[in-house]
Amino acid sequence: MATHKAAGPTCKILDDNITKLTCPLDNGRHQGNIKHDLGDLDRLPLELQSDILVRLDLQTLTDFRRVNRKAMDNVDALPEYKAILLHNKNSLRAIFSVELGRFITCNELYITLQTKICERCGESAEFIYLLTCRRVCATCLCRRIEYCPITIEDAERRFQVPCHPIQKLPAMRSLPGPFGPIGKTCLHCYTLIDSSLAFLVGATNRAGRRPACSAVPGPAMPLSKSREMEVPTVDRHMFDGRYMSVVQAHRIETPGMVSE
Q1: How many of the other CB atoms lie within 10 Å of CB of 139?
Q2: Which of 51, 117, 133, 213 has the smallest number of Cβ neighbours within 10 A?
Q3: What is the value of pTM for the model shown?
Q4: Is 253 within a domain?
């Protein structure tokens, strides 16, 4: 069970709602010889192939891995992919379970897993907020509104986000199950987006509709202090989206790193 001090020892997050059975991974299960090549891709040096593959989003990388045994071996041989599987296999399960594989690259996840500090406060962070693939500590997760995702409908209503651009934002499909400090069970699945990104898209859209004379440049207001950026909620009696969108992830230490 995932725990953190800020929310109490019984706090349930995404880790508690995914298992090897609900999201199995086939790594290491296949045996046999290579019977087919990769066509024109095999003409590229292996180093260049690896550089291309590691930049693919995780869903595309997984789809490529299914092409044949040669493709599977090439993906499994990527140092970044191997490190993720070795140290944080559950992070892959979480990403695929909430349908975020199209929005996170293998290299992006690897780099995030190498970090150990919260992007907001700089303190040690044990969680990853999946909608932005960034580290977050328990305190910021519980107290900062940026980590409370909202539904598309709520974003359209609250931030006046038009339908077309909002469809391009990373979106996750939440899982049913117990979430939050008291483990309240949510029976429904929601399509959730990052509230900060939705706010910025809405602000950009409103600025584009203003007369040119009214668009006076000024200092950017911190998102958490903006009057428009109130605590985003759908129905707080039903669920708290922040616990649906984080996964506990150990830091990956590569050779040459010094543990502190």
Answers
A1: 17
A2: 213
A3: 0.78
A4: no
